[in-house]
Amino acid sequence: MRIDAIVLARGGSKGIPNKNLEIVNGKPLIFWTIEQLKCCERINDIWVSSDSDEILDYSARHETQTIKRPGQLANDRASSESAWLHAVDYIEQSFQIKTNLIVAPQVTSPIRSNDDFTNAINHFLNEKADSLLSVMKLNDYFIWENKNSQFQPINYNFKNRALRQNIPHTYLENGSIYIFKTTILREHNNRLGGKITFYCMDKYKQFQIDETEDIKLCEAIMEKYQ
Fold first, then answer.
1. Which helix H or strand E contains 56, and what residues bound it?
2. Which helix (H) or strand (E) holds 3?
3. Is residue 75 exposed (0-12), middle (13-18) or buried (19+ Cβ within 10 Å)?
4. Residue 129: pLDDT band by 50, 70, 90 thresholds?
5. What is the DSSP letter of 76?
6. Largest pairwise CA distance in the chain
7. Across 76-206, where does the E strand assignment appear?
8. Integer Cα distance of 95 and 121 in angstroms
9. For 46-100, what is each residue's pLDDT tens digit?
């Protein structure tokens, strides 16, 4: 089975201008995802899709294939699915390559181990799954929601408060890694479909960079664990 990694890295960003090239722990943010993907021998090719020539030039210098993404697929309203579909079409039509499985990491989640992609792919294949998302296990949390200005518990009855160890386990979608069959993406126009499984990651890997203040937090964690 052919496995391609498609990295979405547009030039614009509301929180941090040109975020994907922002220096994080001494390197441009996108560097971390590219280097982690290179550690995975199961991946045939790494493709970076961007509307930014600067990002594409940087990625090419770091031994990835590049895909110039149209501007209409790189604005705040464009879905990731539309960019993945554009990339898959480009790969298949321009290089006569039949894609089977797509590994789709989130650049703004730089905190991963070098074996996370390999472990996630192996889990996907062992489960005979159609799609996978990375998650973090939530232990012993009492979770509430604000529904029509009324706060209500989600996972327990406050009138009969459970012991913390008896709370049902829930999982947070951390956005770091998605894996899906190309057929699922085309049929559902969605990264998830068919038999869905998840890859559970350590709690410290949940943090991502959306705002400037996130950089120092992620750097502190990366210096400790990576």
1. helix 53-61
2. strand 3-8
3. exposed
4. very high
5. T
6. 62
7. 101-105, 131-138, 144-147, 150-153, 170-181, 196-200
8. 24
9. 999 999 999 999 999 999 999 999 999 998 889 999 999 999 999 999 999 999 9
HEC secondary structure over 17-50: CCHHHCEECCEEHHHHHHHHHHCCCCCCEEEEEE
Taking 80 as the threshold, does the pLDDT of residue 140 lie above it?
A: no
d(CA 131, CA 141): 27
pTM score, whole prediction:
0.93
Domains of the chain: 3-131+175-225 (3.90.550.10)
> In this structure, are residues 70 and 90 in contact, taking their beta carbons and an 8 Å threshold?
no
Q: How far apart are CA 69 and CA 53, in angstroms?
A: 10
